[in-house]
Amino acid sequence: MKKLMILPIMLLIINIVSGQNSTARILEYVNCGYAKTFTYRLEAKCHENETVLYRWLLKDFGTPAENATLHTFYFATTNDKYELTKGRSLWKEFEKKMIAELDSIKQFDAERQEILMGLSQTDSLHNAVNRLPGLQKRRDSFWKARKAKKDTFKEYEITYATAKESYEEGDLLPSKWDTVEETYLAMKEELGFLKTELKKMNAKITKYREDVARLKKETGLLQYKSYREF
User: Fold this and answer.
1) What average pLDDT does the chain have?
2) Cα–Cα distance between 46 and 82 in angstroms, integer?
3) pLDDT (tens digit, 9 = 90+) per residue, 7-55?
4) Under 8 Å between Cβ of 75 and 95
5) Most buried residue, 48, 131, 145, 179, by CB count within 10 Å?
6) Is there a contact between 23 and 75 (Cβ–Cβ < 8 Å)?
7) Are residue 24 and residue 71 in the same domain, yes or no?
8) What is the pTM of this model?
9) Does one domain contain both 100 and 129?
């Protein structure tokens, strides 16, 4: 019976030690300051008996969604040990992800670790990857709008040409010609706007794709299977 009891107790001890080591490893990585991983931006504020860890999704940092992705964890610190006091419901999943990311970062050489930590909001792989779908969807909407306007404009060009000829021949009232011309010029201006916006969006999409390719190479993510979906 005693032998049977030893195994559960040992497993419990291992789990406690493992959890403590994982917590310490994460907090030591942030080191009472700021840090980044592939997914998170982190900040730790260290007090005499308490450490507070703030966690944002890196892709949202500096955007209106920033506060929505903020999670805060509170740790009581005694005898160099950390006890999680607030944020338990969110900690397990976050801890698991963090340790996986720290293991991957550990394999980088010093230069690539420095590049990863230096990535800013506007120069981050996550930012580029997550901005692409929304921009592509917006571009598609503009393309459809331009296609519809272009078809309508082609039809109206006939109306415009006929009205112009009638006006110049003195067969169309000036007030009616004004209405036709104003509509024609407004449609032409709108088509020009849509064309310009589409050109800008295509340029942005190309730039994001270039950034993704460059950052995958610079950070070394191509070498690690768990991040190849980027």
Assistant:
1) 80
2) 12
3) 443 333 333 334 458 999 999 988 888 888 878 889 999 888 899 999 9
4) no
5) 131
6) yes
7) yes
8) 0.46
9) no
Q: Name beta bridge partners: 42.
A: 35, 55
- Single out the residue in 60, 81, 106 at which a domain terminates: 106
Q: Could you tell me if 41 and 34 are in contact, meaning their C-beta atoms sit under 8 angstroms apart? A: yes
Q: Which of 26-35, 116-125, 219-228 has the lowest mean pLDDT?
A: 219-228
Domain boundary, last residue among 75, 106, 137: 106
Sorted by sequence, the CB contacts under 8 Å of residue 66 that are 6+ apart come out as 56, 60
Residue 62 has a pLDDT of: 65
